[in-house]
Amino acid sequence: QVQLVESGGGLVQAGGSLRLSCAASGRTVSRYAMGWFRQAPRKDREFVAGISPSSSSTYYADSVKGRFTISRDNAKNTVYLQMNSLKPEDTGFYYCAASEVPGRPYATGWEDLPYDHWGQGTQVTVSS
Question: Cα 84 to chain center, whole Å?
Fold first, then answer.
């Protein structure tokens, strides 16, 4: 079983940056698609970004395109989410997830991969 542990969350002012990390253990995730999700209080969980095993493909929610970057270092079994130009609406609990199905044949639907492994999450708060 894959265990995922997120870190790097915290409090930041609008316009600032944070870098989240997701460290995997128990299994290598080098052949897994990886994703980041977030959930604000009293709102549904939403897809933020996804990445293919070799980093050949990345996908982003429209709300974060141009501001967030997902990356991975398979040698370290770790996935990252660099968040720049943060806005108050980015506030939420951020989760890392892994899918044994490594991708989609189209550049859509990555949020619907079977993400079977989830971390506990890390809080991101962006103040005005």
Answer: 14
Angstrom distance (rounded) from CA 76 to CA 25: 10
**Cα separations in angstroms, 7 against 19, 42, 76:** 9, 23, 15
pLDDT tens digits, the chain, 128 residues: what are they?
899 999 999 999 999 999 999 999 999 999 999 999 999 989 999 999 999 999 999 999 999 999 999 999 999 999 999 999 999 999 999 999 999 999 887 777 889 999 999 999 999 999 99
Which residues does 39 contact at the CB level (< 8 Å), separation at least 6?
45, 46, 92, 93, 95
Which CA distances in Å does 33 have to 6, 7, 53, 68, 91? Answer: 16, 19, 5, 18, 24
